[in-house]
Amino acid sequence: MGNINNRLTVLRAEHGWSQKEVASHLNISRQTIISLEKNRYSPSLKLAFEIANLFQVNINDVFQYEREGRDE
């Protein structure tokens, strides 16, 4: 398994939006934005695309998947 990290806080700051504003645009709760920003929650694929579309960037510009090391 790996971790999904995101740049949501950075993108939000670049647009001058509050957590509440982003949540409102996406029709989700502010608590969901908080959990996403703290990497406590990984969004559904649909929500990930909606977030990328909101910021008008590629999904890979918002979310990065980091694989954990494997013993091969």
This entry's quaternary arrangement is single chain
CATH class: Mainly Alpha
Question: Unreliable runs, pLDDT <50, ≥5 residues?
Answer: none
Shape: globular
Topology record:
Blueprint: E1 2-6, H1 8-15, H2 19-26, H3 30-37, H4 45-55, H5 59-62, E2 63-67
Antiparallel strand pairs: 1-2
Keywords: DNA-binding
GO molecular function, one term: DNA binding
Pfam families: HTH_3
Question: How is this structure best described in words?
Answer:
The protein has helices spanning 8-15, 19-26, 30-37, 45-55, 59-62, and strands spanning 2-6, 63-67. It has 72 residues and is an alpha+beta fold. It has a single domain (2-55), classed as 434 Repressor (Amino-terminal Domain), CATH 1.10.260. Strands 1-2 form a two-stranded antiparallel sheet. Helix 2 (19-26) crosses helix 3. The model has no long low-confidence stretch (mean pLDDT 93).
Characteristic key phrases:
single chain, alpha+beta, 14% strand, two-stranded antiparallel sheet, 5 helices, 434 Repressor (Amino-terminal Domain)
Summary, kept brief:
The protein has 72 residues and is of the alpha+beta class. The protein is built from 5 helices and 2 strands; from the N terminus they run βαααααβ. It has a single domain, classed as 434 Repressor (Amino-terminal Domain) (Orthogonal Bundle), CATH 1.10.260.40.
